[in-house]
UniProtKB/TrEMBL annotation:
A Pfam family: Glyco_hydro_17
GO molecular function terms attached to this record: hydrolase activity, acting on glycosyl bonds
Segments passing through the bilayer: none
Signal peptide location: 1-25
Entry keywords, A to Z: Cell membrane, Disulfide bond, Glycoprotein, Glycosidase, GPI-anchor, Hydrolase, Lipoprotein, Membrane, Signal
The keyword Cell membrane is assigned to this record: yes
Membrane topology designation: Lipid-anchor; GPI-anchor
Organism this protein belongs to: Urochloa decumbens
Protein name: X8 domain-containing protein
Record carries keyword Ribonucleoprotein: no
Main location: membrane
PANTHER family (UniProt xref): GLUCAN ENDO-1,3-BETA-GLUCOSIDASE BG1-RELATED-RELATED (PTHR32227)
Family indicated by similarity: Belongs to the glycosyl hydrolase 17 family.
Amino acid sequence: MMAPSRLIVVLVSTLALLFFSHAEAGEIGVNYGMVGGDLPDPASVVRLLRKSGITSVRLYDANATVLKALANTGIKVMVMLPNHELAAMAAAPSHALRWVRSNVAVHYPATQIGLVDVGNEVFLKDKNLTPQLVPAMINVHAALVRLGLDAAVKVSTPLALTALEESWPPSSGRFRDDIAQSVMKPMVDFLRRTGSYLSISAYPFFAYIAQPDKISLDYALGNPNPGVRDDNTGLMYHSLLDAQLDATYFAMEKLESASMVLADSKDTSATPGVYPSETGFPSYGRPTPTPPSPSGGGRRLRAARDGCPAASVANAQAYNNNLINRVLSGATGTPYRPDADMDMHIFALFNENLKGDRPDDVEQFFGLFYPNMTKVYEFDFHRAALASWCVSNASAGAAALQAALDYACGHGADCGAIQPGGTCFEPKDKLAHASYAFNSYYHHNGRARGTCDFHGAAYVVYHEPAGNCDPNASRCVANAAAGEKALQEALDYACANGADCSAIQRCGPCFQPNNVVAHASYAFNSYYQRKGRARGTCDFAGAGSVVYRAPKIGKCLLPSKAWIL
């Protein structure tokens, strides 16, 4: 039998190895569109980007004023060659060289340009230019080579997902016949050869409103959900965005290029990465009734389900915060490509009032900010703001959990609360006790990478787990025994005196279950947290009580300020 001290050394060594094997987190940025009549000047926008912790920005042109404003900021930049330039760019390498000199080389390296997007959704917006797309990409890259910039600046082109003939299940993903061999095969070979990646415009929002009876809202938003299984591969998908990304990976593999891997190969290193250069969710508006489909027809979109609009502040906030947290946490892989690196760019930086066909067009309301530079809803791009918890892995087994629990309690975790009589002793369950100890150890060590693994007995999550217990993080919940009348009066008082009760309004994310106990718990807790959890702020004449374990009400966990670092 291994001595305890030896076991600890092995465990610590394993943690260190696991720590150093993790990939760095990807980049989360924004798309800076300028189709608005009331947008701030570029210098003000750059100050906003820096203040907000946004470290990467994608442009829809190569606007010299914007690029100069971004100089010496350290912000990474992606520029775009507009569709109307494609024909000339494909026809003459000299034209490509002049464009790259005037729009990239003159600004680099003061402005950290890292990518040139050649065209924008050409197959969808300018089908007649399809034959010129890859030749234009080749000529732009050749210009970068000639100027010695090809190592720093890559070339790609963003595709709308209408380039896929099939996208579900993801393993059936394939490109349309009219572009697969003639355009996509040489494009993917070019991307692989030059060390670039495929950009896609991925919008779960539009897929959801096209089929709200088949796609769940939580699945579209990336919220916790039961998931959907691809029966061909056995892979489970908990995010529609992941399904769209993997469908694109499978489509690339089906091109069966001699320089690429086939779909049934385990070696996927030759396939370029797939990055969502555009993705987002609108906070308001109505979609275009009959958008184009690959076959030229259209489908009527449902702007609302059960009377609740899909385009809402709550849904936009959930989708985009899920994206931000995912990328900042380093969880950039997909079910099919779990180790994939990935950068994402949220559409868009601002609401843009000149987009779309009418004043309430959904295209105008994808922004994170209003044109006056105030937030449409709360979000945070700063990595330090990302909340995380360490939880036990039930599949590790009882022996491994106990060994890891003992190690955590002996090396900095405060395990007093899980001793008999402690605040978090109940439930008397090894899995719950281990989660408490692991989380305490993880935060005691500043949430450093590698401090939540315990030889596979634990893992990090970015949504507070239901039942999470913390003696320093209390919540206020409704006391059902107080009766509906007392609860309603206390609920009304809380909502009128500082509680944020928007989430429990109809169509709000915490409206269900629609009963006074659930709504009162949400309102009481909001009031209690906003009052700094001061004594007496969770009583409501006996209608409320303090708890230390995170209660789940419907799909909503009552928030706590603890662990939010």
